[in-house]
Amino acid sequence: MASEKSGSLSLEGFTFSESWEKKRKRAKKIVEILTKTHPREKLLIGDPYRTLIHCIISQRMRDEVTYNVWEELFKRYGDIETIATTPVEEMQKFLRKSGVGLWKTKGEWIVKASQIILERYGGKVPDSLDELMKLPGIGRKCANIVLAYGLGRQAIPVDTHVNRISKRLGLAPPRVQPERVEDYLRELIPREKWIYVNHAMVDHGRAICKPVKPKCESCPLRELCPYAKGLVTDEDIKGNSKKGGK
Ligand code: SF4
């Protein structure tokens, strides 16, 4: 086997044995197949501010509801200047009436993040993960979403689909945190493909590699997937394995 480590990443936590070299080759093929199966010719590379607000609203929300509320919010308030000067209570009321969960917190985040972007960054959404993560309501996943889909940078947002599928595919050890999953994917997948990974895995997760009962028999990744071969299980991913993570 090749060296056990690649940077700060280790092969120790995987449930099966595979060198970095083989993993990289497999990852490359997986991404090729995924982007062919779930093509997105035009990725949503748009306004970073609107992407950021969308991400705040979307937390623990269904996509359709998020989209409608987001659209309505911009119809009603228009731009960052108006949103930044809207009283927090008014924004909270709007979100609550629109059926948004965590409306109180999100209302505050939306107004405060807008004020900070105006005051500290001259109205321009910052172009760095660290700066983005200083904004209220913006964690690592949202920061990566803004970088990828708002600014067109190569970034890999890790949401629940990317986390689960990467682990089933043995591209990240089953027990690591999403932040670490991102590190493994960045290590294994060629940089110019990073921007496609989230979209492709989200589509794949909705259509085939579902949280419960993934459709392995009809999956185009079957031959490349350790989960389909019984080498990784959902119990491993939940951390209930008796194998001790090896
Ligand atoms: S073979 Fe099964 S577990 Fe593997 S990616 Fe496909 S659906 Fe998911």
Automatic annotation (TrEMBL):
Write out the entry's keywords from A to Z: 4Fe-4S, DNA damage, DNA repair, DNA-binding, Endonuclease, Glycosidase, Hydrolase, Iron, Iron-sulfur, Lyase, Metal-binding, Nuclease
Q: Which reaction does it catalyse?
A: Hydrolyzes mismatched double-stranded DNA and polynucleotides, releasing free thymine; 2'-deoxyribonucleotide-(2'-deoxyribose 5'-phosphate)-2'-deoxyribonucleotide-DNA = a 3'-end 2'-deoxyribonucleotide-(2,3-dehydro-2,3-deoxyribose 5'-phosphate)-DNA + a 5'-end 5'-phospho-2'-deoxyribonucleoside-DNA + H(+)
Gene3D superfamilies named in the record = Helix-hairpin-Helix base-excision DNA repair enzymes (C-terminal), Hypothetical protein, domain 2
Q: Name one Pfam family in it.
A: HHH
Q: What class of enzyme is it?
A: lyase
Return the CDD domains for the record: ENDO3c
User: Which Gene Ontology molecular function entries are recorded, alphabetically?
Assistant: 4 iron, 4 sulfur cluster binding; class I DNA-(apurinic or apyrimidinic site) endonuclease activity; DNA binding; G/T mismatch-specific thymine-DNA glycosylase activity; metal ion binding; oxidized pyrimidine nucleobase lesion DNA N-glycosylase activity
Instruction: Give the protein name, as stated in the record.
Output: Endonuclease III
Q: Which gene encodes it?
A: nth
